[in-house]
Fold this sequence. Notes:
This protein is of the alpha+beta class. Helix content is 27%, strand content 17%. The chain is built from 10 helices and 13 strands. Strands 1-7-8-4-3-2 form a 6-stranded mixed β-sheet. A 3-stranded antiparallel β-sheet has the order 9-11-12. The protein has a two-stranded antiparallel sheet with strand order 5-6. A hairpin with a 5-residue loop joins strand 3 and strand 4. The longest helix is centred in the middle third of the chain and has 20 residues. The radius of gyration is 20 Å and the shape is globular. The protein starts with 20 loop residues before the first strand and ends in a 42-residue tail after the last helix. The C terminus is likely disordered. Magnesium ion binds next to loops. Keywords: ATP-binding, Kinase, Nucleotide-binding, Phosphoprotein, Serine/threonine-protein kinase, Transferase. It holds the Pfam family Pkinase. Belongs to the protein kinase superfamily. CAMK Ser/Thr protein kinase family. DAP kinase subfamily. GO terms for molecular function: ATP binding; protein serine/threonine kinase activity. Its EC number is 2.7.11.1.
Amino acid sequence: RRLDSRSGLPAGLLAETQTPISSEPLDIAYEVTGELGRGKFAVVKRCVEKSSGKEFAAKFLRKRRRGRDCRAEAVHEMAVLELARNSPRVVNLYAAHETDHDLVLLLEYAAGGEIFDLCVSEELLPEAQVTRLIRQTLEGVQHLHQNQLVHLDLKPQNILLTSLAPPGDIKIVDFGLARRLGTAGELREILGTPEYVAPEVLNYEPITTATDLWSVGVIAYMLVTGESPFLGDDKQETYLNVSQVNVDYSCDALSRVSELAVDFIRKLLVKAPEDRPSAAECLSHPWLWQQPPCLNPEPVLVRPVRERSCGAKWAAPLEDKENF
Ligand code: ADP
Ligand code: MG
């Protein structure tokens, strides 16, 4: 890994945090209960604050990874969360603790679990619900990008819900691969999960905010079809499918999907990052502002979309209506 010549820290990582890091054992103030999830270097457990009864998710970030001191990577994840925290679409950081093994982040608890479960469930969500979740995801992504942050690991496992039935609001989690643009010169790295990652990442080309929008396209595809667009029988095939943008728009899975949904997905799953719409542009796509037929016979408040950029890749709908 590249080290920064001045700080000696891995290049591009943020080192400054504001939240105090407590060395008090977690179980003094919290009752740690079941496991919510785990990845390569982290375990997430549900816990309850003894004084308030409030629930949290504690993410235990291992400081030693592959036999190496990776405290800087854990601190970076915490620093990114702090920079991103002013959005209701990003999971909130409440406190931090540190043990010999881990940096423990106390996060807002998202009780509805991963939207991944909605993608693989027998019954798919109606499109009117999918558009609400995609809109919220884009709002979160737009907030990150406004703060020069790129997530780089957006996938249905890292978008959580505040409640499951009915589906609540989304919370973006897992900033382990996130980077601040402009902190390490050009960003080119192999990161993320091949199934969800943009061609420029696989091809070792520069990474920009457009990289996250590819992933939003994959997530939208999965929510409306229940299938993963690029997943092959093995990693090699998946890589090839992504780098050739191998999507069959006449496949069975998409035949049950609205034309506007397909149009939205088509505009994001584009090989050249500069040809993908930004988060703000996506937010003015008519698919996201469609009235579900017969859902609301009452007159609906008309609210114009703000932040519609002049370079929008599509004509904005005449009237934008919030459909919930
Ligand atoms: P990793 O870096 O290991 O992928 P994540 O931050 O993605 O770690 O967390 C792993 C899993 O734990 C998530 O996919 C989710 O299922 C669960 N999880 C993470 N954060 C929360 C949270 N705030 N509330 C509820 N569940 C969570
Ligand atoms: Mg994750």
